[in-house]
Write a structure and sequence with these properties.
single chain; 332 residues; alpha/beta; Rossmann fold; 2 domains; four-stranded parallel sheet; 13 helices; 4 strands; globular
């Protein structure tokens, strides 16, 4: 882990692909003695996460703006080569990020011993946040890609299976490459062996192992009835090479990051590995642009014809219009 903050505060970021259980892990950290900050700054619960997202609204909004500034979005992340986070034009966003942390956790000198913030986008943007505040470590949450694909599809996200698998790979390799000292937690661990999962999180942060009361509180927070999209019951999906690769890395739960050679893993994490849907979307957008341009041309043509016909009608109904107009001119 890196050095602690100026007042002895250590920060941990919870990262991982969307719909992978990052909210559950972040919520559980509260019961291990980690502060998630001012609850008034949090996004409210929603249909996707009725127990809460445990995301600071200001951080999520800033991350979205940062991705847009870099030319992408959470589902179409930009290529991020080494050193991108030091760009001078990010200075205003760095200042705002520092202010959001102050609003959420208080001034650095008054912060608790352990603080945490969570947003799946941090998987891509951790280097930026490390220019804003000292981050001791990360907890990377990973879930069976088949379940992630099913969850995104059910929730109506505009992401198909191939793109979802590509994002799963991108988020995982970006998060793990940017923090070699991370702790990897599987989504299924929270449901299959919660005591061991909590003990691993506490041990990674150097905190006492949770007692029975803390474990019971986490179980109540998780609400085991909310476990959806078990891979065994996930709907059948048309096979595609990207999902097959993601499943190979998932390796039945024994996550094998080494399944992809390091140079390729680096390219994936930086965003150079993209699904064919990128080209399809670009072609579709260009096609729509051409079609819309042609529609606009025809509409403008019809509008010009109507204006000419209206002018002719007005001229025919008022033969002396010009003279009348002249009599009421500025010299009248």
């Amino acid at each position: 882990m890196s050095a602690s903050g100026p007042a002895g505060t250590r920060a941990v970021c919870v990262t991982g692909m969307h719909r992978s259980g990052t909210s559950a892990v972040a919520g559980a950290l509260r019961f291990l003695g980690v502060s998630l900050g001012n609850p008034d700054r949090m996004l409210p619960p929603g249909p996707d996460n009725p127990k809460g997202y445990f995301e600071v609204a200001g951080i999520v909004h800033l991350d979205d703006e940062l991705l847009a500034h870099l030319g992408g979005a959470w589902d179409q992340p930009p290529v991020l080569d080494p050193g991108w986070e030091e760009a001078p034009d990010l200075a205003p966003l760095r200042a705002r990020a520092a202010a959001v942390l102050d609003e959420t956790f208080g001034a650095p000198a008054s912060r608790p011993a352990w603080i945490a913030w969570k947003d799946p986008r941090l998987s891509l943007l951790l280097p930026f946040w490390r220019t804003v505040a000292p981050i001791a470590t990360t907890i990377v949450v990973v879930r069976d890609p088949v379940e992630v694909v099913a969850s995104l599809g059910l929730r109506g996200y505009p992401v198909g299976p191939a793109q979802a698998a590509s994002l799963w790979l991108r988020y995982l390799y970006a998060a793990t490459n940017d923090d070699p000292g991370h702790l990897l937690v599987r989504h299924s661990d929270l449901f299959d062996d919660l005591p061991a999962a909590l003990a691993r999180c506490a041990g990674h942060l150097g905190l006492p192992a949770p007692d029975a009361a803390a474990e019971a509180a986490v179980r109540a927070h998780l609400d085991l009835g909310l476990r959806h999209h078990d891979a065994a019951g996930a709907p059948a999906r048309e096979a595609n090479p990207l999902l097959e690769l993601a499943s190979a890395v998932w390796n039945g739960g024994a996550v094998d990051l080494g399944r992809v050679p390091p140079p390729i893993a680096d390219l994936i994490g930086r965003g150079w590995f993209r699904p064919p849907i990128d080209g399809e979307l670009l072609a579709r957008a260009r096609s729509e642009l051409v079609a819309n341009r042609e529609t606009l041309r025809k509409t403008n043509g019809r509008l010009a014809t109507l204006e000419a016909e209206l002018a002719a009608i007005r001229a025919g109904s008022d033969p002396g219009g010009s003279a009348a107009a002249g009599e009421s001119g500025p010299d009248a």
